[in-house]
Amino acid sequence: xxxxxNIHTVQTSIAGIWHKAKNLPCQDYCxxxxxxxxFVAVVSDGAGSARYGKIGAKIICETLCDLLxxxxxxxxxxxxxxxxxxxxxxxxxxxxxxxxxxxxxxDFSATLVGAFYQNEQGIFFHIGDGAGLAFRxxxxxxxxxxxPANGAFSCETYFYTMADWxxxxxxxxxxxxxxxxxMTDGVTGFVFSxxxxxxxxxxxxxxxxxLEQEPHKxxxxxxxxxxxxxxxxxxxxxxxxxxxxxxLS
Length: 249
Hints:
The chain has 249 residues and is an alpha+beta fold.
């Protein structure tokens, strides 16, 4: 019989100052789902240039969580591909897609950073920017990163709504890790060095240590939100910001 894990999560999404100035909502979205020994977490950044980027972000997070929580590690890669295809089909027939064709999926452009965890084994699945980080509690020197991927220009990234999305899909396995963090591009510059070989402990460690000790999820989420909404953080990066922390064991 599969063992149940006592998994705890804290996550928040906030609008960046550019969206706030234009009175626009946050385009990020995040979701988690747990079922017996399986855990799925997904964050997505809806493209600011896309008319319905928030919808694209919401649908990919919800679809992946709903479907992958019934998958298995041995077939997880094919399950991820199938789930993304289903999310794309939902957008093809979405009421805002007036042509009801893949041609207008660009209106829903969004990135994808997710993780599947089962029986102490995990894997990141990733399209575009944002990042994933897996490590053991208290050990910030030994970690696995799912790095962002950008195009020829720093402001250019990849989306699951692109025609060649499968060429941009990356998998990064990890094991023997019991803490997980997923984030959108608005947060990565605070967490990692520019080359993504190291973490920035002055930002990450105090956040993680607080989340480890705070028993009230609502307090933890508010503290996380306050950190991301800090005026200095908003000045350094005007993008929407999402961060999701998971205690796996």
